[in-house]
């Protein structure tokens, strides 16, 4: 026996011997599911039955798949997890916004939100654990990025919320505005959107899906070439490069003009009007000269500006704009012929701004002092 064996060398084989965590049933593609069923002498059509339960119905366990033989349900429960998530926290706000903090199989956390408006049910989903973009006002990026979410993990956020809704409610819109930069997880994003829009998937129209990006020009064009009419929202936040680079550090190597040109191409190719998101921060980017500059940047473009009063994040010094400043900003844009709206706050009492729950929980874990 070697004298210098370290503890780590001993520890490794032990970890490898541990049973791998059970796969979530949604992680199996239809060939894998059919093959698994065949090994129990079950016909191929069972795969379709299982998928319908998982995608369209509102059940919480294999046991409720009542058109499957009882033994098959037991076998499914033995071999697979019903969902790839554990719900760590479920909050319901006064305005009926619901927010979930989800624990993934490797222990990482993500969030998703359901927002209710008359005739509209919008789900906001995450695409990464954390974010690498480092926007200075955003809770999601404070701890960097850990990994991309898998397509199943992205899709399941929609399905988990769908299963929680009342029988007469259905999801009408999806916004990819949760934790992460969706275009930095391009494959994961596209695979999940393909499923969400497929007739034999979740069946949502592409025009009901909005992808929000910090502005990665090549990927914006790639998304346009996908031939789908997804809506594109570009997080601009500043009307000139000097200020934008301070607020959105990745801007340094990209630049506003490149982003606007890519967004113009997106509009040309898809016919979808671009939304520009602009988080207003008091004294930083919310003054009349910023509004004037933004208006000249967007003049002649088919664009809509979403003004978002910053949601406070306790770790950060930036604060929400004063109401009169927001109002004045909006008026200047309108006066210059730029259509704009101030986004309504939803779920303010449950910290619904993206990344806040995960951040608080990570602080709790590491002994930090942020209340959750
Ligand atoms: N990475 C993508 C999508 C995630 S952020 C993007 O940058 O667009 C989604 C939206 O939430 C962005 O417009 C972002 O600017 C906004 N956001 C992030 N933190 C916020 C905060 N504290 N207050 C208000 N909006 C915020």
Report on the structure:
By secondary structure, the chain is an alpha/beta fold. About 35% of the residues lie in helices and about 20% in strands. It has twelve helices and twelve strands. Strand 11, helix 11 (about 325-335) and strand 12 (about 340) form a beta-alpha-beta unit. Helix 7 (about 215-225) packs parallel to helix 9 (about 255-270). The protein is elongated and about 70 Å long. The structure holds S-adenosyl-L-homocysteine. The site of S-adenosyl-L-homocysteine has 17 residues, from strand 8 and strand 10. S-adenosyl-L-homocysteine binds near residues 138 and 310.
What topology does this entry show?
Layout: H1 7-17, H2 30-38, H3 45-55, H4 70-79, E1 86-92, E2 98-103, E3 109-117, E4 120-124, E5 128-130, E6 145-148, H5 151-164, E7 173-176, H6 186-197, E8 209-213, H7 217-225, E9 231-235, H8 241-247, H9 256-270, E10 274-280, H10 288-298, E11 303-309, H11 323-335, E12 339-342, H12 356-365
Parallel strand pairs: 4-7, 7-8, 8-9, 9-10, 10-11, 11-12
Antiparallel strand pairs: 1-2, 2-3, 3-4, 5-6
The protein binds S-adenosyl-L-homocysteine.
S-adenosyl-L-homocysteine is lined by residues 133, 137-138, 177, 181, 212-214, 235, 277, 279, 308, 310-311, 313, 353-354.
């Amino acid at each position: 026996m070697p004298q210098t064996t370290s503890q780590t060398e001993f520890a490794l084989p032990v970890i490898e011997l541990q049973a791998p965590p059970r796969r979530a049933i949604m992680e199996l593609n239809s060939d894998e599911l059919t093959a698994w069923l065949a090994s129990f002498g079950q016909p191929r059509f069972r795969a379709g039955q299982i998928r319908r339960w998982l995608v369209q119905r509102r059940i919480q366990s294999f046991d409720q798949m009542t058109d499957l033989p009882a033994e098959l349900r037991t076998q499914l429960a033995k071999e697979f997890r019903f969902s790839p998530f554990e719900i760590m926290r479920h909050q319901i706000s006064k305005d009926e916004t619901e927010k979930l903090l989800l624990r993934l199989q490797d222990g990482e956390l993500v969030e998703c939100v359901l927002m209710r408006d008359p005739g509209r049910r919008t789900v906001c989903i995450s695409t990464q654990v954390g974010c690498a973009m480092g926007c200075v006002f955003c809770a999601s990026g404070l701890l960097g990025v850990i990994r991309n979410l898998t397509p199943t993990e992205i899709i399941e956020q929609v399905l988990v919320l769908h299963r929680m809704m009342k029988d007469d409610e259905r999801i009408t819109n999806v916004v990819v505005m949760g934790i992460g930069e969706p275009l930095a997880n391009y494959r994961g994003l596209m695979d999940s959107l393909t499923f969400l829009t497929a007739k034999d998937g979740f069946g949502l129209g592409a025009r009901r899906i909005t992808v929000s990006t910090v502005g990665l020009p090549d990927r914006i064009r790639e998304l346009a070439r996908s031939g789908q009419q997804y809506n594109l929202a570009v997080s601009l936040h500043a009307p000139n490069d000097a200020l934008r680079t301070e607020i959105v550090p990745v801007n340094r190597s990209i630049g506003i003009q490149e982003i606007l040109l890519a967004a113009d191409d997106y509009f040309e190719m898809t016919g979808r009007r671009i939304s520009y998101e602009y988080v207003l921060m008091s004294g930083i980017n919310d003054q009349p000269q910023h509004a004037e500059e933004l208006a000249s940047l967007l003049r002649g473009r088919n664009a809509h500006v979403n003004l978002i009063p910053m949601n406070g994040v306790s770790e950060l010094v930036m604060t929400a704009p004063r109401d009169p400043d927001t109002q004045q900003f909006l008026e200047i844009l309108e006066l210059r012929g730029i259509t704009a709206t101030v986004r309504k706050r939803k779920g303010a009492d449950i910290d619904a701004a993206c990344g806040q729950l995960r951040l608080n929980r990570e602080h709790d874990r590491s002994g930090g002092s942020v209340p959750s």
